[in-house]
Specification:
Pfam families: GH123_cat, Glyco_hydro_123_N_2
InterPro entries: GH123_cat, Glyco_hydro_123_N_2
Number of strands: 26
Radius of gyration: 28 Å
Number of helices: 13
Strand order of the largest sheet: 15-26-25-24-23-22-19-16
Distance between the termini: 49 Å
Helix content: 25-40%
Number of domains: 3
CATH topology of the largest domain: TIM Barrel
Structural class: alpha/beta
Length: about 625
């Protein structure tokens, strides 16, 4: 609070700055005829208002502000629509922004789309449609793009989808249990419906359309031109042009960018209403995992115990390994389902690592079947105790043998997630006593005490690897990444997050010289994921990045873009070093220095990206 009191005893007044408003509170009458007092008043008014404006600007967190939609009454909304042109309106718009369904978009009209792309790159834009008149059914059509020599970017590589609106909420306090009634909720454009061929736009409604082009690696450089047609009450034709540059991105499976989105097989079975682990289930899973392959996913998420995260999700997370204690006290471990699932995911194209969750679950409760008792029993002895060590050493010895027989041991990791230091140290000691070559993965805080033991280390966004440690890890072939979860308001992948933040993450990863990014849930869906992204804990959209179908999302597509930008940066840095183009290398490195999380309070991700994107397409 700022308070000012006039030195004039007969005319006291003060101004109060409180949150977003400066209010003048007068304690006596003010006589405008008193010129001296008037001038004094104007002087102080100017100073106080200047202070208020300055503090308002400082107090405004621009990235948080993007997450909030304006609260407007029906009269105001109707007034905005009265100002919109009649008929069906169209305009291209940035794919980094979201547009409200119930308001006409505030954009400078763009009646064409022109962009640049590398060979092997996936590019996209938004095409906005809106009308204040009666509802209209529309259909979108794009044919081949052709350059001046007759070379084609075929329509098979082009997709369009209506961006559907889903229910979201707000960050507020981030982590923790939440009731929907306690949080502001709204509709947000996120789900990309590529399976619907036509859609009715209701009166006074905005409907975004997502256009995506995958440029094949063998495309010849050139300017490819074509049109997009919107058919409704009238036919609207808009030109598009893609300049394909003579640079090539590798296939996503070959990216250096290490993306890890944790998979949830049981959730797929539930939304498609098929038996868990049946043939139909595996049939449905294939397209979901292929979508993940095309985003650069490197790791298979597996559960070797029931509910490794204490059933924090809507769906169960059952073990892929069946534990049985025989009547004679010996143990048998059935890996048939584990083997089937891992082989399936590898066949889909995700085959670099197998992360096994977890010897260190959020709740020590390991389920096994006891033949003597003829029922399931839960083991609860604490980590580090003789009973715990005996329980796990038997399993690990058998599991190690099995993995070596399958040829998977060198790519399998025992994974831990945000666990206490003492527990992790005890588990590391136990693992190494079974086989010194066991690999370990950890997502959590940075701990210098155990860093050398972690082969795949993913640190929370508030941490950084020391430069010398990061260099040693790279030389040793260890993976060093970072993650966000319900803790960070930004950058993040909530359904209300700015789409540009998912791209920003790729640049941040390159700036910090890390290998990639992790997020805990690819598809841990809510009860009605196609309609409502809110959950009983954590901000909306935290539990999934794609939708049942499979259908992509704006944030997932932007996450792919961030991976592509990381690959471009890596390739250009290497090229500039090899060719001695020190000025270009310095320019790129200088641009990367701006990518600090704290700076997102003062400049949005899309504003930051707009300043530097051109450096990747010169």
């Amino acid at each position: 609070m700022i308070e000012y009191k006039s030195p004039d005893e007969n005319r006291d007044f003060f101004y109060v700055y409180n949150t977003n408003v400066c209010v003048k509170l007068a304690t006596t009458n003010f006589f405008t005829s008193d010129l001296i007092i008037y001038l004094r008043f104007m002087k102080y008014l100017f100073l106080i208002l200047s202070a208020c404006i300055t503090l308002n600007l400082k107090a405004q967190d621009v990235s948080l502000a993007l997450q909030k939609q304006p609260k407007l009454d029906n009269h105001t909304i109707a007034h905005f629509w009265l100002g919109a042109p009649s008929g069906l309106n169209t305009s291209f718009a940035s794919a980094d922004q979201r547009f409200a369904k119930n308001l006409p978009p505030k954009v400078a009209l763009q009646k064409s789309w022109s962009t640049k792309a590398w060979k092997g790159e996936k590019i996209h834009t938004q095409l906005l449609t809106w009308t204040r008149d009666k509802s209209v059914a529309i259909r979108v059509q794009i044919n081949d793009l052709e350059d001046e020599r007759g070379n084609l970017l075929k329509k098979e590589n082009i997709s369009t989808g209506f961006i559907k609106y889903v229910i979201t909420d707000e960050f507020r306090n981030g982590c923790g249990h939440r009731k929907a009634k306690d949080f502001d909720s709204s509709y947000v454009a996120d789900l990309i419906d590529t399976k619907t061929s036509s859609l009715v736009i209701e009166q006074n409604t905005t409907q975004p359309i997502w256009i995506s082009i995958k440029v094949p690696e063998n495309t010849l450089p050139g300017n490819y031109k074509g049109t997009v047609k919107i058919s409704g009450t009238q036919e609207i034709t808009l030109p598009i042009q893609v300049e394909v540059l003579n640079r090539t991105l590798p296939a996503p499976r070959e990216w250096a960018y290490d993306l890890d989105l944790w998979q949830h097989p049981a959730s797929i079975a539930r939304v498609h209403n098929v038996p868990l682990w049946g043939n139909e289930h595996f049939g449905y899973m294939k397209s979901y995992y292929q979508m993940l392959v095309n985003a650069g996913q490197k790791t298979i998420t597996t559960s070797i115990v029931n509910e490794p995260w204490g059933h924090q999700t809507y769906d169960d997370y059952p073990s892929l390994v069946k534990w049985t204690k025989k009547k004679d006290g010996s143990w048998v471990y059935d890996y048939n389902l584990f083997d089937k699932y891992v082989s399936f995911v590898m066949d889909c194209g995700i085959d670099q690592r197998i992360n096994c969750y977890s010897m260190v679950p959020w709740k020590i409760a390991f389920t096994y079947y006891d033949e003597n008792l003829q029922k399931e029993v839960i083991f609860t002895d604490p980590i580090g105790t003789p009973a715990y060590n005996a329980f796990w050493k038997t399993m690990l010895t058998d599991f190690t043998k099995h993995l070596k027989e399958k040829g998977w041991f060198n790519k399998t990791y025992i994974a831990m997630d945000e666990r206490p230091m003492k527990a992790m140290q005890d588990v590391i000691k136990l693992l190494k006593s079974v086989d010194q070559n066991w690999k370990i993965a950890l997502a959590g805080d940075y701990h210098a005490e155990i860093e050398a033991d972690i082969d795949n280390y993913c640190i929370a966004s508030r941490w950084s690897f020391p430069a010398n440690v990061l260099q040693k890890r790279k030389e040793a072939g260890k993976i060093s990444t970072w993650y966000t979860c319900c803790t960070e308001p930004y950058p993040n992948g909530f359904s209300f997050s700015s789409p540009a933040e998912s791209v920003w993450m790729g640049w941040y990863t390159a700036h910090k010289n890390m290998d990639g990014y992790l997020r805990w849930a690819y598809n841990s869906w809510t009860k009605n994921p196609l309609i409502d992204t809110r959950f009983t804990t954590w901000p909306a959209g935290d539990t999934y990045q794609i939708y049942p179908g499979p259908l992509s999302s704006v944030r997932f597509e932007k996450l792919i873009e961030g991976g592509q930008d990381f690959e471009k940066i890596k390739q250009l840095r290497s090229l500039y070093q090899q060719n001695g183009r020190s000025s270009k290398l310095a320019e790129l490195n200088k641009a990367l220095e701006d990518f600090e999380i704290k700076d997102l309070a003062n400049i949005t991700a899309d504003e930051m990206l707009n300043k530097v994107r051109k450096l990747l397409n010169e």
